Each structure stands twice: as C-alpha cells, then as structure tokens.
Amino acid sequence: MTTSSPVSPASPASLASRAPRHVPAPELLAPAGGPAPFAAALAAGADAIYCGMGSFNARRKADNFTDETFEAACRAAHLAGARVYVTVNIVIKDEEMVDALSLVRRCAQLGADAFIIQDWGLFREIRRLMPQLETHISTQANIHDARATAWCRDAGADRVTLSRELSVPEIAIISQVGIDLEVFAHGAICFCYSGVCLLSSFARAGRSANRGMCAQPCRLPYELVDEKGRVLSPANRERPLCPRDTNTSAMLGELLDAGASALKLEGRMKAPDYVYSIVDVYRRQLDDVLAGRTATETDARARARQLKRCFNRDFTTEYQHGASGDEMMSYERSNNRGQLVGEVIASRPTGRNVRGLHPDDRRRRAAVARIHLFEPVDKGDLLELRHDDEFDQFLTTLAPADAVAGETIDCDIARAMPAGSRVRVIRSQRAIDTANAALKRDILRHRPVNVHITARLGQPFAVSLSCVDNPSLAACATGFTVEPARTRPVTREDLIEHVGRMGTSPFQAASFTIDMDEGCGMGFSSVHKVRATACKSLEEAILSPYAAIARDLDNVAPLAQAALTASPAATPAAGEAPVPLTPTTPALCVVVTTPHAAALARDLGADVLYATTDSLDAANISPVQASELGIIPLLDEVCREGDHARIDPWVLKGATVACGNISELALASQQGATAQIRSCIPVHNLACATMLSEADAALFWLSPELTLAEIERFCPQAATSLTVSFGIEVFGKPRVMTSEHCILQVADACIHNCDACRLRRKKLWLRSIDGKMLPVTTDIHGRSHLYDSSAIDITPQIPQLLAAGVTHFMVDTALMDEDELKRAVTHARRALDAALAGRAPGKRLQGASSGCLFVGVD
Questions:
Q1: pLDDT digits over 832-853, tens only?
Q2: What angle, 0 to 180 degrees and rounded to 10, lies between the N-to-C axes of helices 35-44 and 67-80?
Q3: Is 0.85 topped by the overall pTM?
C-alpha cells in the first residue's frame, strides 16, 4: 500500500485567514490578455502573471478569460510556482460595485493570488468584506511619493504600483516605506500621468482610459500652433504626445538596488510571441543579475536583438534617469519600428510574366529590392522598407531565406524603392516559431524539486519532495517494504534514474539525497508508483491553500446586501425648487490666475476663489495671505518627492486646500487642514466617498466623466450620511492631460530653462487631424497640461445637481481673457441664482457642450 502526506501542513485556520503569499524577490511580472499569452508568459519563466477577467479592467478590448480557462491557467501557474494577479484597475460606478465585488470573489475562488485596484471604493469594500485577499494599488491610482505609498500601506494594501514617471533615486526613497513596490520595466508609456487622463473620453466619444477603453488619441498626429495660426512643430515631429517604450533590461540591477519588488512588463494587448520574447529576455537578464553574472557580448547582442524585434516604438530610459526630454519621444511614428537591419542599395522592375496570378501576387512580384544587411534576418521575417524622404510610402515583404550580417539579399516587392531606404524587421518569424513550440509543450514549465529517497531494509520505501523555490511546500509518499535483493541489488544510480523520471507531473528533479542500505532489492514499477504518489501529494500541498481560500469565501455575506452602495434619490417634482441636502450654502466657485481676475470674479458674484499654487507664487501671495484672502490653493495632480518643498507649505492647519492626489490628502490630514478632493481623484461611488471621507476629505469635486444619473444615484446619500459636500465644474475647458514631458518641446526649440521660456508664455494649441484646437500650457516646472477643445456648460442642469446634493459650482477661468471671464462668471451666477429661486436657468452658451453629463463614458 502506498501512502502520502504533505510535510508540515498548515492549519485550516491559517489557510483560511490569508491567501498563499510566497513572492520571489524580485518578481518578474508578465502580461497576459488571454490564455495563449498567459501560457507564453508561464513557459518563458514569469514569476507572476497579471490578466483581466470580465469588464472591470483597463484592457477590456483584450481577449481576457472565461471561468474555465482562468481556473486552468491559475492551476498551471501555481504548480509551476508562479502567481496570478487579476486587474480590476478602473473606476467603478456605484451600480457596478456588487458585480465588481462578485467578480473579485469568483476570481479568488478560481485561484487568483491578488487584485490590482484603482478605485478606492472597491479597495475599501474588498478590505472590509474579504480581508483575506491580497490587494495591490494600481498605477492608475497615481501614487508617486513615499507619503502616498505609506498611506496605501496603512490602508491595508500589500503592494503599490508606482507611476511610470519616477526615477531610480525616487524609487529608492519610496522603498523605505516598507511595502512591496512594483515598477514598470518594459513596454508602452502613457504620455499622461496614469489615472488622470481624460483625452480619450472627450476626444473619442466617451472611450475612457479610466474605464479600460482608451482609444489612444495620444498616438495620433497633432500640430502645435500659436494664436496667429502658425504651425510651430516641424514636419517630421508630428506626434507630440507619443512616447517611446520603456526598456530597462540593461539596468535591472539599479532597479533592484533601489528596492523594486516586482518588475512589470507591459503588454496585455500583445500576442503570445511578443509576451514570450520579452519575458524570456528579462528572465535571463534577471537571473544574471541575481547570480552576479555578466552576459557575454554575444548573449547581450542577441537579447537586445530579440527585444527590438518585438513591437516597439524605439526605447527609452529617460524617466528612470530623472529626465523627460525629446529623447523619450517617438515624434515621427507611433507604429512598430522593429529593428533596423539593412538598407536598400538598388531595386528594379522584374519584367516577369504575371498572367494568371492573383492581383496580390502580381503586385508582390512587380519589383526586386537588393538589400545590404548589417543585422541577420531569418526566413519569413516581415521586413519594412521605408525612405526618410518618402516616409509614408513604405512597403513590406518577407525575407526569402536566412541571412547573416554583411550579406546582400534580394526580396520581391510591389514596386521599386529608392536606394537608401531603411529596412527593418517588424515581425520575427523566429519569435513566432519559438513561442509556438513552447505552447505545444505538455507541461509549460516544470518546477524544480529536491528529492529525498529512503530505502532501508525492513522499512517502507519513501520518496520526499520539496519545492526548490519554496521548501515549505513538501510531500512524502511511502510504499512497499524494502527487502534484501534476490538478484542484483539496486544502486543509488538506479534510484536516481527511476525516481527522477517525473513523467507527466509538473515537477523536475533538481537534487537528490539518498538514505539507503546495501543489498536492497525492489521492483522499479513499485518505485514508480511511490514517486507518482509523491508527485500527486505535492500537487495537493501546493493547491490546497487555494481550495481553503475558496471555501472561506463561501462564508462571505451576500454581497448584494453587504456591499456599501447607494439607492437612487427621488427626483423633485417639475417646477419644484431644489432643496440642498446638506446645510452647506450653495456656492459659486471660480478658478482665477491673477489678483485682478480674483477681484473681478468677486465683483461678479463669486463666493469662493481658487488658484493654483503657481499662480499664487507668481502673484507673491504666501500661504498665510491666501488663507486670509479666502483663496483656496489648488494643489497639483502630481506630488513627487521633489515637489514637496513647494507644495507642502500650502497645507496649513485650519486652512482649506484642494488636493490633487493621495499624498496631498495624507498631508492635509496630518496637518489638520480641511481637504477637498479635486476631480483628478475620481469618486464614482458611495464606498469611495466613504473611504476618502474617513481620511478627512470634506468636499469632493466630481469627475467630468460622471453622468447626471450617476451623480443622482450616490451623491444624495453620501452628502447626508457622511456630512460631506460635493462640487462640480459647470463651466470651462476640462483638463484632459497632465504630462511630465513638456509638449512644447515638439517645436524643437527648447532652451531648457522654463522660467525664461518665451514659448511657454504664448497662447498655444494642438490642432488635431479633425481640426479641433486643444489648448496646451506648460507650467514653470516643465509639466504640460492639455485641455479639451470645447468648453463644457452644464449650468442648465444646476437645479438637478442641487437636488442631488451638489452645492459647489465651479467656473474655471484659467484659459480665459477678461471678457470671457466676465461672460462665464455672470452666466453661472445667474444660473445658480435662478435655480435657488425655483426658476429654470438660461440656455447653454453657444459653442459649449454638456461634456459627459448625459452620454457618459464606456
């Protein structure tokens, strides 16, 4: 009889209290948009894989998973020693909270190790209702300093994914907080700080980046134009919002020394060959760093070539080195650059007889290009031929055979190309073949195990297995009683051979220790049976904690009743004057940029004034003076370590500040200031408002992505139950981007001195391909702000907003001249007064829109 048992099993109580958490340090974290990329990541050596389920993730257009494929993927990953994270990294509408929580519970029961979260309401509810689950804060939450990271840690997060923009020294400072830090190591870069981008929502009919439907308008051409209509951007710099891709493969040691816990590879929309290739390179690079090895020159070149032959817009490490200049931009093109491998030295028409051929074949054989190679190519590689003087007139063709650097090859092309045309590999056949071969393996990745064999005369034969990466995962199987040999005794080598045959199990023997008497005899079929039982027992030891978590989650209270959500408020009768739901007096608030504008706005009826700290500094108004003048400082959307010296002094005890990120909210709470939450911290549900009010937020400026119906759903209950106030911008051009890179650099005239920059003082726009004019400004710190082309005017809806608990109504005059300011403030003042008197406000001003208030975002 064969028996087995896990070694040192955990108690049921400990299993149910927390999901299994054995995180390699550091962790190589790979993307997967579906089962095939997941398999590729696992086969290539990822320590963890992040993926989406359902519609609550930032890559909703990816294939993603079904319950069945996700459960199978989790099982395969766990047996291989990898972890699985589910992205729930979008803002959650109040009516979606129960479904989002249900998805989280279902994924955890199917095997998810952790959840990557943007929405603070969802985070709060997971921590409250399912505290045994591991939670990671998404980069969408816009965390970029130690103070905000500590706030996340104290709130119960297990990991924080830092903003892509941070430098290695900044990461090193933040690592002292004492929480796992995830940093982006490779892949696409968002131009805007993640979580505060609204460009896709306003430019592409509600396709919100905060809802996983970004249309990537940042990759399109734009012209930088001044108020006279002059185009300031050169012809070859058409994409001012299009960065290159991050590639830190050569600086992994620096990231690890800085305290990075996880190295994230971007690409949940990418194919399996892309995923396999980048994970494979980073696995080898990371293993070299951890082993203290230096790759040979040949290996280093091969790895660089492998990365370049994956989709890329060229590479940069500007952010990691504390820079954000032109070197990080892909102004010329937003599509795949691949790897430059050669040059066309001549081309000619073929003169071939193409009668009877399909039209595509005729074109393909119309000419021949002679190409000189300075990098090798493989048969089947997709080559792009493009000349700098005819940039849009490019062709593609296939490499006809393998060729090495220095060779000249002839390729069939559709038409002759000019000599000097650059040749790039934009799709690697070797990468496709390698990934496909890996995906055909019966076992995608074997887990190394230490094997201990006991063969003592008169005692049960025993095989013990323990995972090399986590020795606490172990199992032992015993079987037949060992007897003296009747013929040839079994040797140690025999046992290593036969026990080491792990067969179809997910394990691979890494080492053997043997306790054995001389003269033992046994049948190898019996040995195989004990080994197979030990393997099965080890599988159970690995998977049993996940089964315990699944059972534990069955005991969670019904989410439909337990989740914190709001009930829709009753709509006031037609013609009935709205009654504010809080004792707060409704206020007209105006954002101003100068003392003159402030005085003018007050004269026109502004109740409360706001100004950025830069505007206040420019006017020589100190924090104390601003408080005395009743001007509320608008703190930045970004607060990195280097921003503290200029931002922190504005947060005074007893004063009011409008916080643009979690760091500033944390500081306001510490200092005893009254914190308002700017709309760049999206609050879309009652649970989010509750969590931030528990962190001392007193007023919430609502996101311009919210619809009136969504506001009416959760704001009334929040306003009354939390004793907080709500505000909304009713007139002005919404900010749609904040970037570390200065957009004005596209003019190719940067003097690297923002204070002396004349271009920064001009009125400038980006003109889109459909003629829309998006205002752009750059502050004195070199950060750019992009605004929507059209002003929003939702003053006609002030009665409904008042009825929904909104009491503060903002007019943003930052981009307005004096006449425009007068018109906007007067218009809003009249609308609010009319609403408070029970009258209908006037019509929306011509040329303005209602933004997302009725159409919403996907």
A1: 999 999 999 999 999 999 999 9
A2: 0
A3: yes
